[in-house]
Amino acid sequence: MTTDAADGGTFFAYLSGDPPPRRTPAAQRRILVAGLGGLAVILAAALALAAVLIADRRAALEAELSQRLAILAETRSELLAAWLDGRRQLAARISESELFRLFATELAMTGAGLSRRDPIGSDPAGSDLSGGDLSGSGARQPGEIDPLVLQLPYMEQLLTDFVRDSDFLSAHLIGSDGRIVVQSAGGPSLTDVQRRLAGRHFRRAAPPFGPARPAAGGLVSDLVLPVFPVQSESGAGRPAALLLVSLPVAKAFAEVLAPGGLSRPGERLRLLQVEDAAPREIAPGEAPPLRALGGASPFDTESGPEDGP
Q1: What is the radius of gyration, based on Cα positions, of the chain?
Q2: C-alpha–C-alpha distance, residues 171 and 188, integer Å
Q3: Is residue 219 classed as helix, strand or coil in its secondary structure?
Q4: Is 82 helix (H, G, I), strand (E, B) or coil?
Q5: Is the pTM above the cut of 0.85?
Q6: 170 with 163: CB under 8 angstroms?
Q7: What is the pLDDT of residues 147-173, one digit of tens each?
Q8: What values do phi and psi take at 221, rounded to 5?
Q9: H or E segment and range at residue 240
Q10: Residue 208 in contact with residue 284, Cβ under 8 Å?
Q11: Contact of 228 with 101, CB cutoff 8 Å
Q12: What is the pLDDT of residues 262-291, one digit of tens each?
């Protein structure tokens, strides 16, 4: 059977069972390239869609994590702030009492000669931490006993009872000349950290709590409150004396850092404090309990570096 293209011979050839014309290798390559190109486009679209979905999921997880951690940090910080404020209010019962304010006022008026303690500063330039003399002349005749000296045993007993009943470690009443006038029974001598802390409070207003520091009794902090003269309103003017109280903080800090209901496996809370513009981690129950981030602890001795603000 013969066919002609003009007569539709190719069509009849198909009907008669003759094989179709074979594609050339170039045509086959074009079809293969087109197929691979289409597959590549589909694969790229699938990868792009997967990347978008993963990015959206990651952003959602990060937002959820950030919100949860913010709530957790805020809750723990409020808990710690409430505990510290409770300690401050407890110590304020002494610093704001009329008896201690009157004692401090008379102390500033009569001079510091009655002090039976060592000065805060070991050198003459550092013994007066107030930045100025608040005491009057207070001149007395030879052999005359200052009435304030007779009050010292009673004031010491009040401080001792206060420390025992409040679960503090020690309490010191520091006069305007920088000397310890009264301290609780068995109270240790002031450390260099405490001396600098008291000096700053005499010179200007400062946060009441000093940084956490290691001591013989564990991790402690110092609370410094001004004792204003009776004739001035609290919070106004220069204090007549300072009340420095040392309190244990390891147990309270450990409770703040303990895992809670919002915590997940593998998560860890970290408590930091800033000293000398450098953050340091507070790790109660560990050795050392204070350490610089990424380095060894700078608190190898009782007297550490200059405290933070």
Answers
A1: 39
A2: 9
A3: strand
A4: helix
A5: no
A6: yes
A7: 777 888 899 999 999 999 999 999 999
A8: -140, 160
A9: none
A10: no
A11: yes
A12: 677 777 888 888 877 788 888 888 888 888
